[in-house]
Amino acid sequence: MLTIQASRSILYNIEPIGIETGLVESLVSYLIRLSYEHNINVGHLVNKIVVPELHKDYLERSSKYGGNSFYEGAKTINGYTDNSTELVRVLEELTTRIDLTSLTLFKLKDLVPLRNLFKETFSWCPECIKNWNDTNKSIYYPLIWYLKPIQTCFEHKCFLIDKCPTCYKKTGILRRKMIPGHCPFCFNLLIQDEVIKEINNQEWQWHTFVYLNIECLIGIKSSKLFAKEQISKQLKFIKHQYFSNNIIDFSEYLCIPKSTLRAWIKSENMPPLEELLKICFKLDITILEFLSKSLQNVTISHLVEKQNTKKELVIRRKLDLVSIENRMKEILKYDPPISMAATARMVDRDKRILYCNFPEYCKQISKRYRDYIDLKSKQRIEELKKEIQVAFYSLVNEGIYPSSRKIQIKTKRSLLRERALQEFWKELLVKNNLYNG
Ligand SMILES: [Zn+2]
Ligand SMILES: [Zn+2]
What we know:
Layout: H1 27-37, H2 42-54, H3 57-64, H4 69-72, H5 82-95, H6 126-134, E1 152-153, E2 158-159, H7 201-219, H8 230-242, H9 247-254, H10 258-265, H11 273-283, H12 287-292, H13 301-304, H14 310-331, H15 340-346, H16 351-357, H17 359-397, H18 404-411, H19 419-431
Antiparallel strand pairs: 1-2
Helix pairs in contact: 2-3, 16-17, 17-18, 17-19
Bound molecules: zinc ion (ZN) (2 copies).
One zinc ion binds near residues 127 and 153.
């Protein structure tokens, strides 16, 4: 048990999960698990034990008066700014561990700018959580889930979700009542019966690339191998080698404004992680190759063919518009339809450029896709309703009250966690004069 009055409250020395792998636990997750292991809520651990050790007056005042300062800053706890390094220091003192820096992006601080890096709300893979729960493993939240470019789970080939499947609420990065694997509002497990796996191929290619590259980056033992100037050096080299030093051609190829690109080349600032990934994706090299190798020794084959005279490039670009239009017309006939994001990748142009040149096609493509997704989810609900109905009446016929638990046993899954289905079940109860809630 904790003795808060003691001069120093020592916390359990619990082992962080996945150290030195791409799926290493995040510092936020560690804090949540620590609270859970001590059987106290996160709010208590933060206010009574962590904040006093941080020696930050404004946080202490804030926590005393029930304020939110600590939680509002939580987005960057997994990063490398002061709030993160300070929390590492305090938690290491309290747990006597020495490896908690690994739960943050500290080692990437020279390579990855914080701008646009972290998600505003928590997102997770429901399948990972389900797996850990089913196999009695510790449920934890990997660092990788908190990064904006990460939208899928590579292992389960599904999208991460950011709304509780039971109460539909989104949750902040850290909340006072977080328990590993559970919604901080309704406390249900953050799992979903039907996981959306409909990711089309082109889209999946991109998400896989992003996931594997970031996983690699997070898993590296030390970033000392990479020089900070490497990014600008490589960009300069490509511009020189493949674009006859022409920044306009290079910026159009990358779909990045030339002033932005110029600033990166001059090392005035650094590309956000997602932009760096887009560049590597276009160049068809991994981020580690980009950061560590000399590109002189790497052939970027599809760039070689771009080395043409300017005149040819101009002609080709004009033709491109026609061929892009044709491809977009084709895409409008796709069944099932695809999203605008996937379209942009298929025609190898930035979405903004497509919207500029072909607004009508873009609107139609995106509407078709939205309608399709809507229809799919309606169909899914209808099918599940039928399943509930069958279970409901078969219970009634057996003389058993069709409670949510009995329905769950009968259908072998917990369908009634979804609001629409729960409503449907209640309607059935009312209709059959069985409702007593
Ligand atoms: Zn997963
Ligand atoms: Zn919930």
